[in-house]
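Shipment paperwork, digital attachment
Item: protein structure file
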Amino acid sequence: MIPDRQMAVQLVGPDQLRLTETKPVPRPGPTQILGRIECVGLCFSDMKLLHQFSQHPRKSPVLAHLRDEVLRDIPSYVPDTAPTVPGHEVVLRVLAVGDQVGSVTVGARYLVQADFRDLTTTASNGAFGYNFEGGLQQYVLLDERVTIAANGSSYLLPVPDDRSASQLALVEPWACVEDAFRTRERTRIAPGSSVLVVGAGDLTGVELPGDARLCRTASATTPPGFAVVDATAIAPESISDLFYSGNDAAELETLFPLVAKNGLLVIATAGGRFERPLNVPVGRVHYGNIRLAATTSRRFADALSAIPASGELRPDDHVNIVGAGGPMGVMAMVRAIASSSRGSLVEGGVRNPERAAALAQRIAPFARARGVEVRLFNPETETPRGPVDYCFLMAPVPALVQQAIVDAAPRGIINVFAGIPANTPCAIDLDQICAKGLYFIGTSGSTMDDMRVVLGKVIDGTLDTNLSVGAVSGMRGAIDGLNAVRDRTIAGKIVVYPQLGDFPLMELEALVARFPTIGPFLRNGGWTAEAEQELLRTAGGAG
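Attachment content:
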C-alpha cells in the first residue's frame, strides 16, 4: 500500500536543510513513474548544491529538449528557488506507473543516471537531485519524458534483485571513478576547432584539419592559412586549443581563460623558463575537461607525444592516491589495484591513522590476490616511495596540485579528480611540468556506459562497491549524514535507507555495538549484503 505522506529531506535555501514527515506522495500521471527509494549514497557533490542552491548550474531551468508546458506538468521539476530533494546515488523499485509508460516494469529495480544531459541549462544540464527531486525521500516521482533521452535511450538502468541495495546505489559514484580511467584522450586537433598559436613554436608533426579556424598572434611563426588576431579581443572559453611557445608567465595566465571546455593547452618553452609559479584555474581540468601537455623543446608535437590513449594505468606505473582515506579515495585505491601490473606499487596518502587502518583492513586481501604492493602513508610526515608515474588527486586542495608536480616522475600523469573550484587560481610550477613532460587529465561525473561497466563488475562478483561504506542511516539521520560529508568526519561512504525512517546515522563500529547480530555479517570490517539484510530485519525497515 502506498502511503499519502512520507519522510523527506528538503533543501529550501542555501545551507537550509529541513526534514519533513509530511511530504505528499504523488500518484503518477499518464507519463509518470512512482518509485520507492531503497538506498541512496551521500556525495560531496551534494555540498555544492547545498551551498549554492539556486545558483548551482544544475538547479537552473531547463532550456532544451522539453517545452515549458511539459516541465510545468512534472511536480518533481523544481528549478531556481523551488525547494528540492538532494541525493543522486540511488536505487529504487518501481511501485506504479501511468498508462503511457513503457520503459519500466512495475516491481523492477532501477539505477538512476543522474545527469539528464540533453536537458541543457544555461551552464550545465538537468539532473536528478538538483532541478529534479532526488533520492533523500522515501518515494520519488519520475517522468518518462525526462528519463527517456533525446536519442531514445533511458536514464534508468535495470538492476537485478540478488544484489544489495547499497551495492547498487554505489554504482553511480564508482562509475565516476571508472570514468576517470576509461576516458579517451585526443592527441590531434579536432575537425572544426578554433586553434590559437602564440609564439614561435614549431608546428611540424601537428595535424591541422582543413576546416579548423586557425589563428595566431602577431608574434607567432606559423604556416600560411592562419589569421592574425589580437589575443586581447578573444572571448573567454572560445578557443578549442591553445598552442603556446614562450616563457612569459603573465601572458600565459592571461591566455589560459581563453581555452574552452574540452580544450587542449599545449606548451613548448623552447628552452626558456617561466622563473615563477603560474596562477591558473587548475579546477577547469576537472570541471572543463581541459588537458595540459608540455615540453621544453620548440616542437609542439613533443608535448602531444606525452598524451596517453586513455586514463588507464600504464604497465608498471607507480601510483599515488592523494586523499586515499576519503570515500572516493577508497574507490580509486581499489580501481588502481585492479588495474595495476603484478608487482606494482599503489600508495595512498591518509592523514588519519584510524582511517588508514580501516582502509588497509579492507583492501589488503584484494591487493594480495592481485599481487600488488600497497603502502599507506601519512603525507604530513612521509612522502611517496620514489617518483610517481600516476597521481590521483582525490582531495580538493589547490596546494596538493603543486605537491603532485614535485612528486611526479618524468612523463607522469596527474589526474585532477577532486572538485577544486573552477575559478580558483592554483600556483603551479610550470617549469617542472615542462621539464618532466607531465600530462594533466581530469573528469567529472560519469556516463551510462560507465555505470553499465561498474554494474557488470558488481553482478559478476569482480567488484564489491560496499568496500567504501563507512556508515548507515535512515531518514532521521540523513541530515547528520550530509553534515558529516561536509565536515569529513566519517571516512567511508554514508548510505541512507529511507524506509528505515527514524533510524539515526551510525558508523559501522557503533552499529555493531548496538545491534550485535550484524557483526558476524561484516567482512574485514566492511559492509556486506548480509549485513544489510540483518539491519533491515532488526531495525524493522524491510517492508
